[in-house]
Amino acid sequence: MSDSNAGSPAIIAVEHVYKSVSDSTGTLDILRDIDFRLQARETAAIVGASGSGKSTLLSIIAGLDTPTRGTVRLNGQDLFALDEDARAALRAQQVGFVFQSFQLMANLSALENVMLPLELAGRRDARQAASAMLGRVGLGQRLGHYPKVLSGGEQQRVALARAFVVEPLVLLADEPTGSLDFATGETVMELMFELNRERGTTLVLVTHDRAIAGRCEHCITIEAGQVALA
Ligand SMILES: Nc1ncnc2c1ncn2[C@@H]1O[C@H](COP(=O)(O)OP(=O)(O)O)[C@@H](O)[C@H]1O
Ligand SMILES: [Mg+2]
Predict the structure, then answer these.
(1) How far is the CA of 107 from the centre of ligand 2 (A)?
(2) 3-state class of 183 per DSSP?
(3) N or C, fewer C-beta in 10 Å, the chain?
(4) Cα separation of 71 and 175, whole Å?
(5) Closest to 53 (Cα-Cα) out of 38, 73, 37, 68
(6) C-alpha closest to that of 158 among 175, 127, 135, 174
(7) Is 30's C-beta closer than 6 angstroms to any atom of ligand 1?
(8) How far does the centroid of ligand 1 lie from the alpha carbon of residue 64, in Å?
């Protein structure tokens, strides 16, 4: 991580990002001047108290939410210079995102949920690849199950498989082991770091787990919407 533009181009550049939301009761400043860069293959943990702005920051890095000021460059491309369709297309190609709330499609089985990004990418081996990835997260016996009959931990693993399966350039995950027991959490963590080693995937993980944060090269602490200096 670095705070300047010097050196090799960043895979993720978060440039002076601010986020405020307003309603009838006033304005809430959620993020204030978040600024950092990550190079390809780097791993970073985002840590901080509940309500500090971690999920908001991750959504903005993914281009799922828009900053009030500042921008994010993904592999040199200014995400917010694109219109929504172009941003969605870029995200589909390069970003895997694991939501804190999973966001699985209720009307699709586990297998179909994981096949979806592959089908959107035109992959002919969607079924085979999705099935193999569900096997790797320990859900080989749950392919035909719908989200509502899966436990929280199982849904989280489907969400992880859906994000991993396209082998994205960047993997963003919001508390990816939050609903998992220790052993399953370890398996999923291994899988993320394997992607990082084997494919050079840049990892940005929001986590409360010190073991995960400790395995990342960088630890970014957010305090009341700002990066706290270590
Ligand atoms: N769309 C929104 N409207 C109003 N307040 C929001 C919105 N999104 C997030 N917040 C508030 O911003 C703060 C940061 O939220 P969040 O990014 O989810 O924090 P964290 O993930 O660190 O727990 C919280 O106080 C939350 O209630
Ligand atoms: Mg959160």
Answers:
(1) 25
(2) helix
(3) C
(4) 24
(5) 68
(6) 135
(7) yes
(8) 14
pLDDT of 1 reads: 65
Reading the block at residue 101, the tokens are: 């709330």
Decide if 73 contacts 11 (C-beta within 8 A): no
Q: What is the C-alpha separation between 39 and 88, in angstroms, rounded?
A: 22
Residue pair 203/43 in contact by the 8 Å Cβ criterion: yes
Task: Note the pLDDT tens digit of each residue in 51-105.
Answer: 999 999 999 999 999 999 999 999 999 999 999 999 999 998 899 999 888 999 9
Q: In angstroms, rounded to a whole number, what is the distance separating the alpha carbons of residues 220 and 123?
A: 36
Q: Any idea what the Cα angle at residue 2 is, between residues 68 and 37, rounded to 5°? A: 40
Interatomic CA distance for residues 133 and 48, integer angstroms: 31
Q: How far apart are CA 192 and CA 201, in angstroms?
A: 9
Confidence of residue 3 (pLDDT cuts 50, 70, 90): low
What local confidence, expressed as pLDDT, does residue 6 receive?
54
Place of tokens 């963003």: 172
Contact 38, 218 (CB under 8 A): yes
Q: Tens digits of per-residue pLDDT, 94-134?
A: 999 998 889 999 999 999 999 999 998 889 999 999 999 99
Beta carbon of 54 within 6 Å of any ligand 1 atom: yes
